[in-house]
Amino acid sequence: MALWGRMLWSFLSGPGRRGGTQGRAFSSWLPHRPPAGLLNATELVSHWTAVFEKRGIPEARESSEYIVAHVLGAKTFQSLKPVLWTQPLTSWQLQYIQELSSRRLRRMPVQYILGEWDFQGLTLKMAPPVFIPRPETEELVEWVLEEVTQRPGLAGAKGGPLILEVGCGSGAVSLSLLSQLPQSQVIAVDKGEAAICLTRENAQSFEDPLALDGGEEGMDIITHILALAPQVLKHSGSIFLEVDPRHPELVSSWLESRPDLSLHLVAVRKDFCGRLQAVTGLLSCLFRPRFLHIQRSGPQRDCPVDARPGPQPTSVPY
């Protein structure tokens, strides 16, 4: 474990991720207040949908439904009891919906507004600037689970696979794998804890920009991981990556240029968007290659003890 920490420190250093709690103190200035008489959930959803659409807020109706449902104690508007759709709301509920909707008008992601989001059946806490898990990432988890099921030899010291997640963010992937592979050992690592500068706090992007910044071609972190992989992977050990659709070809070319790593791209999978768009007939993002399975062959390399000097990053064994 200490070895992994030393090797990963070189590219996991930098500003940390810090999230605050979502309080319920209401602002004294609340624009777009609903007109008098709009007192039930259905009317409020329609009102805020119109406001969001006018202001160009993405997924206007979904945003308003999630916010109203959250205030009423449900995860989705559709899961509310029908009686609540037309039941008058209390003044506190109206005010809380107003406050949360005002945050959405500032383009804060719904996940941060609610303070939680579901992933693979788990309810995860969400706070900026921690990276929000995407629906497509659930497919990566499912692919890993498939591989473990098909390869019973993937066993660590405690009878299950040993899994390292680099750049864990909210821990969605690690926690999902651990919940379905209780015998596995999962280590999740991310950048060290540090203050977030005022510039970032004032920026329009609520998520940590570094979570999406991989350099000019987006390959910086990917090549770091692949270069270190032979030193931590056993024979036939696997790496699963979620990448940009343009990366599979770049990764394949990079691996061909580094035969010394004994790493091979064995499979590429398309994401949820591709499958969904194929059904709906929309072609804008049809069949996007998103997930890579890379495997190593040959004996495990030794890593010099002082190859990655410096303190170890925070690691959380779940």
The share of residues in helices is 25-40%
What is the helix tally?
Answer: 12
Order of helices and strands: HHHHHHEEHEHEHHEHEHEE
Based on CA inertia axes, which overall geometry fits?
A: elongated
Strand content: 5-15%
| Terminal residue distance | 14 Å
Number of strands: 8
Strand order of the largest sheet: 3-4-8
What structural category characterises the helix and strand content?
alpha+beta
Unreliable segments of 5+ consecutive residues: 1-29, 192-204, 274-285, 303-318
* Average pLDDT score: 75
How many strands, which pairing sense, and closed or not: the largest β-sheet? Answer: 3 strands, mixed
Radius of gyration: 23 Å
Task: Describe the secondary-structure layout.
Elements lengths: L1 H11 L28 H14 L5 H12 L10 H5 L4 H15 L4 H5 L1 E4 L2 E4 L11 H14 L11 E5 L5 H9 L4 E5 L8 H5 L17 H9 L9 E5 L4 H10 L6 E8 L1 H9 L8 E8 L18 E3 L1
Parallel strand pairs: 3-4
Antiparallel strand pairs: 1-2, 4-8, 5-7, 6-7
